[in-house]
Amino acid sequence: MMAYIIRRVLYAIPILIGVNIITFVLFFVVNSPDDMARLHLGVKRVTPEAIQSWKREHGYDKPLLYNAGRSGVAFLTDTIFFQNSVKLFSGDFGLSDSGRDIGYDISQRMWPSLAIAVPTLLVGLAINITLSLMLALFRATYLDFWGVVTAVVMMSISSLFYIIGGQFLLGKLLHLVPISGYDTGWSALKFLVLPVIIGVIGGIGSGVRWYRTLFLEEIGKDYVRTARAKGLGELRVMFGHVLRNALIPILTGVVVVLPLLFMGSLLIESFFGIPGLGSYTIDAINRQDFAIVRSMVFLGSVLYILGLILTDISYTLVDPRVRLS
Amino acid sequence: MKPPALLRVRGLHVELGSPERPVRAVDGIDLDVRPGETLALLGESGCGKSMTAFGVMRLLPPSGRITAGRVLFDDQDLLALPEREMRAVRGGSLGMIFQEPMTSLNPVMRIGDQIAESIRLHDKENLHRPRERAVELLEAVGIPDPRRRVDEYPHQLSGGMKQRVMVAIALAGQPRLLIADEPTTALDVTIQAQVLSLLKDLRQRTGMAVLLISHDLGVVAETADRVAVMYAGQLVEVCDAETFFSRPAHPYGRKLFSSLPTFGKRGRELEIIPGMVPPLDSDFSGCRFADRCDFFQDDCRVGEPAWRDLEDGHSVRCIHPRGGPLEPASDGERTTRQWMPGQALLDVDDLKVHFPIHKGVLRRVKGYVKAVDGVSLRLDSSHTLALVGESGCGKTTVGKGILRLIQPTAGRVLFDGDDLAGLSAGALRKRRADMQIIFQDPAASMNPRMPVGEIVAEGLRAQGLGGNREARQRRVAELLEQVGLPADSARRYPHEFSGGQRQRICVARALAVEPKLIVCDEPTSALDVSVQAQILNLFTELQQRLKLSYLFITHDISVVSFIAHEVAVMYLGRIVEQGRVDEVLDQPKHPYTLALLSAVPVIDSDQRREVIRLEGDMPSPANPPTGCHFHPRCAYAMPVCRERYPDISRISASHTAACWLLEQD
Amino acid sequence: MTPVILSTDALLFLLLAGVAAFVWHARRHEHLRRPWRHVARSNIGMATAVILLAYVSLGVLDSMHFESRGGMASDDIISLFDVVASDLRERQEKTYSAPFSAWLYTKETLELPDGRVARGYPRLKWGGASLDDPLAERAADIARRALLGLLQALALSAVVYLPLAWSRGRRQRVAVPAMLRGFFIERRGETAWPAFNITLVALLLCGFVMASLAGEYHLFGTDKVGEDVFYQALKSIRTGLLIGTLTTLVMLPAALFLGILAGYFRGWVDDLVQYLYTTLSSIPGVLLIAAAILMLQVYMSEHAEEFNSLVQRADLRLLFLCVILGITSWTTLCRLLRGETLKLRELEYVQAAQAFGVRGLTIISRHILPNTMHIVLISIVLDFSGLVLAEAVLAYVNIGVDPTMNSWGNMINSARLELAREPIVWWSLAAAFVFMFVLVLAANLFADVVRDAFDPRLGRGRG
Asked: Is A231–B122 a contact, with Cβ atoms under 8 angstroms apart?
């Protein structure tokens, strides 16, 4: 077990190096820092001096891979690759293109993200499991048929419409909750209700349909027949046997996204003006702040890999058949 | 005076699939099971015997439904009970165990809890002590160390153990009738013997009745008091076991016996049942067996044959029932060929196939699964060598290692005088025309997206044989004819053929490249007895005509006795005994061979030997026992057996075995 | 009128040619036809197929580009669809107008006939222009035009179906009414023709009514610069279809090649391929797309001179978006293919081929590739709807297709800013919603049927 985890963590290193190289190539090789400077300063009529000073301000005036002008360690360290890519490994995200400390911003903004993402996940999970269990219980009836149809209809609607529709209906027409904004402490609660509701509703369609398939797959298995042959009732078969087995893929599917909850939801946060990491990312994309995008790419990869490792570990916890080796 | 029946099934009809074109899996069955007796429901696959059981239990799959009939259990019509009351019967006085013990237990629940569930539902007396009761039940079904096992999960148990747990679950409800649906089909013979004797034992102790569903005449012969034969959704013959095994009346039952391969039938063609079981969604008029019956007369087509009572308790559904005892298995040529050491076609010396086990942070090799651990074999041309053993003993790996479908770790394979390991990749590829393989599952051994003609021509193409396209097509037609398939088969797809026909296609494909050796990996295990006979006949005929040699890998001793010239018995990666088929089967010397042979269910009660029960399961080849691999399960184990693996002792010119008992003589 | 083939057009035609070749090939192979017959038996399958076909025809029509005049200005690359819908395209108003309205949505200073000047809603240049007194006549006019469209559609259906029923009926000795009953109500034979025909006629009715109304009104209003929203929504079909299909297809060869190679040869090839797709899938998709699109923007603004027209520039961005979306989504398919190949290579027919000395690459092409195609097909249809939806989200983040290109995402994105208006401008949203929803729903339902037909194991889910 321990050996397995160590191996997985070690395996994450080449992957993160790969991610780093991809982002480095994308941001500094495909387009030179000069191009970036021109993009920020406006394409036309930019003096070389302005470009130089922009690059100096943002630390992009160093050579890419090796610094021929320096000797010793600085030959490698005093470069864009080292300063902007390698340093990410130590958790040092550096400064954004507008000069703010990215690490500090992230530590501030991850809380609102979590405040939305965690309740959305939990409430959504509870509702999806309940609904799909109900469909599975009434399988091959009209309830099941129309339930599936509704789920397909719901998943055919773009999440944008859920957000717009929700804002319009609950916020604008009924005036139940504020349309957007955020506050600190408990008063944030009223700003959270609408995003959470919309996040949950948006996920019902695909969630219920998928979970229902998982349940039905389990119901078709031999051990369910054994349970029935014992004389167990349908409800006890469902809750005592089917649910337990179907929860394994459901829970491990949840575990893989747990770390990514920190990253927040891009759409919901930006629509509702929530100062989380999702809207941070979107703002960075819109402002073309490459330093932040780069940091978020790295952070996202780290969290994804963490999710994969946690998934493997969670398998051993919930499924007695799996032993890591 | 017959005791009143415990279970009475009257006119049961079960349909599957769409109501417009239903599959009538059970088409009007009357069945009585008396208290304490074992009734065997005997039939080939797809005849509806499992659906009968599911119908009685009201456990039909979602596509199935009972359309008519009554199921009286203790004079109570189960089909009329509301589901809630049915649940009290199901798993209580009416228990059931299934064919697939591997998948029939909930994988994430401790076995103690799974048994306790049943106790809580049906056993009022032990309601307060489910755990203790579960331990008792595990003990009753012969699970060693039940206190520890009760907290284990199903994957920690072997297949035989799981089936015992299934029995324990059924026992928890104190059943008066246990329905056992092919309870040992998925198990090895030695494990099968354990489970069957457990069932017999329990029946004696608890007095419960057993409805045994099986396709295996041997299993039925060893366990049943009465037999009901099922064919195409209906019963065709009901009588007590003794009558059935001495003088069956229905041509179908008689045919089943004569198509069984035995030693006595060597050198002759097995009798076969032509054609196949009619599909159950067709409309029948007249006798359902008429098309395949040797004694067919015109009146067989007129109306469904009525039941005829031949003698007390023996009734048959046939207009022209047969009488008299079965033909005795005539003593054919006891030894077809003398052992003549000549030029060996295949000479395997100390073949080893080890699979590394990786462990730890750096995935270093921490051990080996020794699937094949020093096997030496010799096969003469136009001979058949049977490689016998239970699942997991490495017999399939031997076959694949010889053909280099798996890279052997060590050892020498001389084929026609050439060392296969020494051949270059190109030369080996050429050589592959000489040695072919036929697999167990004919459905999986053909690409479903290729027409049969292409499949058969694959070898010709790969070996550059058969000339141009037209010549190849002619050759394919010839091959198909050779294995007894119509010439237009070439344009059809594998799924359009039945199991036996598919295996014929596989034979044709192997024959295409004119091999000298064919490795047959359990080629008849997936087939019904009557179809198996057709394929075995084909094998013997081809051997005589084409001078083929077979390495016949199987677990079925009756097939071995019919087809093989020599036998090698494998246990845990090594050969423990080999010799001429009559020597090994008649005078086995190794305790394992002895136990294996004694475990095979025998039809003829005169030939029945005392079963030597093997305790436990085969150990893992990753961690074989020290000394002789067999010693932990051997009744004759001596101190020396624990220390060193025995050398090979020669019993006769052709007969060898590896056992310390023999060395001491 | 010189034809212009944009890069996405070329790929789309290539795809269509591929589909046509497959159909021709499948006609002669029973095992390829069998799953499609299953699709044809399904009512939902046939009904959604009609809708998808309608979308595809519009998309294809919109992909046949040519230069209209001389080819000086960039806007002169138009498509066959633009010619057909030239009325819609050219009837540009000044700014917003509501659906079916005859007036602008904003007040302007009007010069009244008597010379006075007042603030009011001016009449539209095109919408309802033939009416003298829109307030009184509009409802009747709409009803008249709708009825006209309805009759035209019914006439067309009659022209198509009656002779068909007559000729078929004569051959099969069935009366025409019974034949029609077979077309529309009770299926004769296995194929679900009634579902097909009913949907087709319903679609014709909708189409003709809308066309008839669109001749006079702006069916879904006009947008900020006065362009007809109905036209925009129709134009967006091509964008949606291309994103949904090309994305998977662009990376398909790589996914097939790497996935099968990894599964068949295992060892270091497998390690390498697994490393590759784990690395790529560990980068959050949106961020990878954002980074790539930002880089593309930089590149484009640096090399503006290389693009001689806005259309070409937008097209390149669309293609690039497909590629980058493909890179983020091929990993799933690659993983599936690797798993399936691992399973297949242990199957006995592969071993039988090995026993004949068939070479590795031949085994892959003859035995493994054909047996993984159902996975490819299933993932193409399943991914389609997700990609259409993703386009809208990406447009919102400004990393979708070019803002000058018609797409549902761009429609939503621009309409979103107007939601704060009082009273709100809702029609752009509504149009995008309707067109997108119908396509995605049809695609989802169709994908379900296809999946059931090709992979019975997955489809066991349905009761």
From this structure: yes
pLDDT confidence of C176, banded at 50, 70, 90? confident
Examine the domain organization and report whether B490 and B615 are in the same domain.
yes
Domains and CATH numbers, chain A: 2-90 (no CATH), 102-318 (1.10.3720.10)
List the single best residue of C30, C34, C356, C366 to mutate versus B (max B Cβ within 10 A): C356
With CA atoms as reference, report the closest residue to B390 among B647, B149, B159: B159
Q: Residue B230 — very low, low, confident or very high, per pLDDT cuts 50/70/90?
A: very high
- Domain extents for chain C? 229-458
Residue whose pair of structure tokens reads 């099922």 in the numeric block: B230
Q: Does residue B349 lie in a domain region?
A: yes
Structurally, chain B folds into a number of domains equal to 2
Interface A-B, measured as beta-carbon pairs within 8 A, has a size of 86
Convert the pLDDT of each residue in A162-209 to its tens digit.
988 888 887 777 777 777 777 777 777 888 888 899 999 999 999 999
Q: In what order do the strands lie in the sheet with B364-380?
A: B364-380, B344-359, B410-415, B418-419
- List subunits contacting chain A, requiring 3 or more Cβ pairs under 8 Å: B, C
Please count the helices (runs of H) and the strands (runs of E) in chain B.
21, 24
Q: What is the pLDDT of residue C223?
A: 83
Mind listing the pLDDT tens digit for each residue in B637-650?
A: 889 999 999 999 99
- Domain check: are B594 and B508 in the same one? yes
Residue B321 and residue B241 share a domain: yes
| Cα Rg of chain A, angstroms | 25
Same domain, B415 and B469: yes
C291 to chain B, any CB pair closer than 8 A? The answer is no
Question: Which H/E stretch holds residue C367?
Answer: none
pLDDT, residue B335, reads 44
- Check CB contact under 8 Å for B359 and A222: no
Instruction: Calculate how close chain A gets to B261, using CA atoms only, in Å.
Output: 33
Closest CA to C382 of C340, C343, C432, C440: C440
Does A240 sit within 8 Å of B122, measured CB to CB?
no
What ipTM, to 2 d.p.?
0.87
What is the Cα–Cα distance from B504 to B158, expressed in whole angstroms? 34
B261 and B362 assigned to the same domain: no
Q: Which CATH number is associated with domain C229-458?
A: 1.10.3720.10
| Structural domain boundaries, residue B496 | 338-663
B444/C357 CB distance under 8 A: no
pLDDT in tens, A88-143: 777 777 777 777 888 888 888 888 899 899 999 999 999 999 999 999 999 888 99
- Comparing CB atoms, the residue among B400, B445, B462 nearest residue C357 is B462
Better pLDDT: C421 or C194 = C194
Regarding whether B365 and B323 lie in a shared domain, the answer is: no
Closest residue of chain B to A10, computed from CA coordinates: B361
Q: How far apart are CA C165 and CA C174, in angstroms?
A: 9
User: Do B508 and B457 contact (CB within 8 A), yes or no?
Assistant: no
Taking the CA atoms of residue A110, residue A113, residue A118 and residue A119 in that order, the dihedral angle to the nearest 10 degrees is: 140
| Chain C residues 319-348 within an 8 A CB cutoff of chain B | 347-348
Q: Do C352 and B506 touch (CB under 8 A)?
A: yes
Q: Which of B59, B153, B360 sits opposite A229 (nearest CB)?
A: B59
Domain end residue (candidates: B287, B304, B337) = B337
| Mean pLDDT value across chain B | 88
Q: Is residue B136 part of a domain?
A: no
pLDDT digits (tens, 9 = 90+) for C33-68: 888 888 998 889 999 999 999 999 999 999 888 887
**Cβ separation of A38 and C463 shorter than 8 Å?**
no
Is the residue at B88 inside a domain?
Answer: yes
Residue C114: helix, strand or coil by DSSP? coil
Taking only the tens place, the pLDDT of each residue in C95-121 is 888 888 877 787 777 777 787 888 878
Q: Which amino acid is located at C70 in the chain?
A: G
CA distance C425 to chain A (A): 13
In C, which residues are within 8 Å of A300 by CB distance?
Answer: 282-284, 287
Read off the pTM: 0.88
Whether B455 and B542 share a structural domain:
yes
Same domain flag for B309 and B389: no
CA distance A10 to chain B (A): 9
Rounded Cα gap, residues B581 and B655, in angstroms: 9
